[in-house]
Each structure stands twice: as structure tokens, then as C-alpha cells.
Specification:
single chain; 414 residues; alpha/beta; two-stranded antiparallel ribbon; 11 strands
Length: 414
């Protein structure tokens, strides 16, 4: 399943394509997607396929197509401090993105059938926390995973605010899945070849919405019984934060707020992580490095439109610039040829008008957002300086013992 958008050159390109195709619709989901490079969850020999809108499987390791994950994230309607359960958590890619939104006081649990995939997920999670600069832009809810079949969850288990199932659910198990969410909660799952959003509106009332057509492998039915009784798989426990962890959250949050000069307030309901200047510097904001590179391309396109206008204005033949011109000496009626040329000129005028408007917008954006940039005579921008991890620099500059600094930095290597 996938292929709804064209392949990107890198993670930002992929997210741009998902936005243009309207799979990513909210700033909250966009920032989570940009913070985690999809290629980091691939095996090294397959990384070149990471930015294609296609599912990927190698043995038990599996990633759904980006367009599916973006629809799931949008449908879940995530916000801080809620609980999330991922059935078939796989590599942990989705759970990690969800954790960026839930914040430190949310609950982020997953259950996965294969033990080797759980080990892979924890390796990727550890790498994200210790090496990714994006980690310091968020207050994170670290996911916890357990090995087991999601159809063996004890009926007395606690319910969740949000639940996602990453395998095709048979109609017989629909009620079982519905009972995993609280009143007011949301369940997203593939049901009868449709990605389906179910909202629990009351103890026994539901609202169902079909999102898109999908094709998922079906849930694997339980096989083992213990003494003739069905086997049960306990979910991760709801752990109370230690005083040390709460102190770390508080200090890091205070430093994030002061680093952003008070401009890091949430753009969305109850958001728990910082945005604004820090995201722009890190390339996670639309005015980051990728946006600058794309603007250069647009400016060159406008120059081509203006050059076309000059050729037409001087009365020169536009044959070399018009791919629809007939070059084979085919006889045409003069009246039809005149009408065709008139239509071409009208299209050129419209393109020129749009090009001039875009050029004016480009100048305004550069003055407001990029006063520090310079441009070479060739029209190419100077290389963007590497992003500075402001939070890390402030922690390292505090008059604290080195072990405490390392604790505040989550013992990160980078």
C-alpha cells in the first residue's frame, strides 16, 4: 500500500509531498514527521528507498507507507497528557512520533508479536534519544513495548484514550478492539479493507468514519493455551514518574522557554513542546534550510517566464520555447493558426502575471525571514550554517557538576 505521492530526495521532501497531497493537514503532525528521519528506521542497505511512499518489509521488520502513517496521525487527534496504545508497534517509528506530541505526562504503550522487532525498536528509540538534535526540541513521552499477541490482552486491562492497530482487523474482532478505548477515545484500524476511525461517544455508542482504502495483512490469531485457558499478555504498567525525572522535565522545559524568548508557546491545543525560532534553526519549520533551497528554484523559474515575455514582446518567433509548435512543415489554415497563437499568448500573459506576483512575494519573504543570507553572482545561495542545539548549549554552560549535566542531556553522545 502506498505510492500516493512522488518520491522525495530526503525526509523534508517527503513531508512536503505529503502536505501537497493533503495527507498531512496539521502543524502538529507535520512537526512530528519532520523531527524523525524515516530512513533512520531502515536497515542501512535499504535506506535509499526510505523516502518513497511505499511500505517496506524485511523479515519481521515492517513499515507502512508514509501516506498511511500521516492519515493515522491526523485521525488520532493527538494532544499532550493522553494515553496511547499501539497494537503491532513494529519498529517504533509511529510510537516515537506520537511520543513527541504526548509530552512527558502522557502514556505511550505498544505491543508487538515478534521479540526481534521489539529489540530493533528499542535500538532505534535509544539512537533517537542519544543522537538526534530533534529530541531537544520536544518534551518526549518515551514508548514502552511488550512482546505478545494483541488479541490476548486481559479483559480487565485499563482502557486508553487513543488506540491504533497496524494489522487488518476481522469483523469478528471489532467489538474486542472497541472495548480497548475509553469513552471519548478514538480507535483507528484497518477494518474490511478501509482505514477506519471509531470514536466512543458513550458506554455503548460509537461513531464510525471510513478514511481511505488500504490493504493490510490480517491479525494473527492466538495459538497457545495455558492449562486449557486462553493465554493473556499483560500490557506495560502505568509508571509514576520519579522525582529525578520530574526535576529533569522542569529544568529542560524552563531552559527551552527562556531559550526561545517566550515565543515557544504551542500552536495547537495543549501542546507540550517548543516551536518557533528553535524549529526554524533546526530546519523543522517551513522557513528552515529546505524552504530556502526551494525558493531559489522558484526564482529561476520566474526568470525563465520573464525571458519568454521579452522574446514575445520583441516580435521574435516563440517556436523554440513552445513545445506545441508544429515543426514538420504541416499546412494549417491561417485562421486556426491565428486562434491557436492567440490562446498561447493569453496563457503566456497569465504565466507572466503569476510569475511577477511570485517574484514580489519572494523579495518580501527574503527581507523578513532571511536578512542574513547572501547570494552569489550565479544566483546560488551560500551554504546554510549547521543548526545550533540551543538547549544543549545552555545546559553545558550551566555551573553544574558534569554528571548532572549528562543527566539533563539524557546521557546523549552527540
Amino acid at each position: 500500500m502506498g505510492g500516493a505521492v512522488s518520491a522525495g530526495e530526503d525526509n523534508d521532501d517527503l513531508i512536503d509531498n505529503l502536505k501537497e497531497a493533503y495527507y498531512i493537514r496539521s502543524d502538529l503532525v507535520e512537526r512530528a514527521f519532520r523531527a524523525i528521519d524515516r530512513a533512520d528506521y531502515y536497515l542501512d542497505e535499504y535506506r535509499e528507498n526510505a523516502y518513497k511512499d511505499l511500505a517496506w518489509r524485511h523479515g519481521n521488520i515492517h513499515l507502512s507507507a508514509p501516506c498511511i502513517y500521516s492519515e493515522v496521525m491526523e485521525a488520532l487527534d493527538l494532544h499532550p497528557r493522553i494515553s496511547f496504545l499501539n497494537l503491532g508497534s513494529g519498529t517504533g517509528y509511529l510510537s516515537t512520533m506520537v511520543g513527541l506530541i504526548l509530552g512527558p505526562f502522557g502514556v505511550n504503550h505498544g505491543i508487538e508479536l515478534h521479540e526481534d522487532v521489539i529489540e530493533y525498536a528499542y535500538q532505534k528509540l535509544d539512537s533517537f534519544i542519544k543522537t538526534s538534535d530533534s529530541f531537544d526540541k520536544f518534551e518526549f513521552c518515551e514508548p514502552s513495548f511488550v512482546v505478545g499477541n494483541c488479541l490476548e490482552i486481559p479483559p480487565e486491562s485499563r482502557q486508553y484514550d487513543r488506540v491504533y492497530c497496524g494489522a487488518g482487523v476481522q469483523k469478528d474482532h471489532e467489538k474486542y478492539m472497541k472495548n480497548l478505548i475509553k469513552v471519548g477515545g478514538i480507535l483507528v484500524m484497518p477494518l474490511e479493507e478501509k482505514l477506519t476511525k471509531i470514536t466512543r461517544t458513550g458506554p455503548s455508542s460509537w461513531e464510525t468514519k471510513k478514511i481511505i482504502s488500504v490493504s493490510f495483512a490480517p491479525l494473527i490469531l492466538p495459538k497457545h493455551n495455558v492449562n486449557g485457558k486462553p493465554k493473556t499478555v499483560p500490557l506495560p504498567k502505568y509508571e509514576v514518574r520519579t522525582l529525578q525525572e520530574l526535576t529533569r522535565f522542569c529544568i529542560r522545559h524552563t531552559l527551552q522557554m527562556t531559550s526561545d524568548g517566550g515565543e515557544s508557546q504551542s500552536r495547537s491545543r495543549g501542546s507540550s513542546f517548543s516551536v518557533g525560532r528553535g524549529l526554524a534553526v533546526a530546519g523543522l519549520h517551513k522557513y528552515g534550510p529546505r524552504f530556502k533551497r526551494r525558493r531559489v528554484h522558484r526564482r529561476r523559474c520566474n526568470a525563465l517566464v520573464l525571458a519568454t515575455r521579452q522574446v514575445v514582446g520583441t516580435g521574435m518567433s516563440p517556436a523554440s520555447l513552445d513545445s506545441n509548435n508544429n515543426q514538420g512543415g504541416i499546412a494549417e489554415d491561417e485562421e486556426e493558426a491565428g486562434e491557436r497563437e492567440a490562446r498561447r499568448e493569453r496563457r503566456r500573459d497569465r504565466k507572466v502575471a503569476r510569475g511577477l506576483m511570485e517574484e514580489e512575494e519572494m523579495v518580501e519573504e527574503e527581507v523578513e525571514e532571511e536578512p542574513e543570507e547572501e547570494e552569489r553572482e550565479t544566483g546560488e545561495l551560500l551554504r546554510v550554517q549547521p543548526a545550533v542545539n540551543v538547549l544543549r548549549e545552555r545546559i553545558l554552560g550551566l555551573p553544574l557538576p558534569e554528571p548532572l549535566k549528562r543527566f539533563l542531556l539524557y546521557y546523549r553522545n552527540k
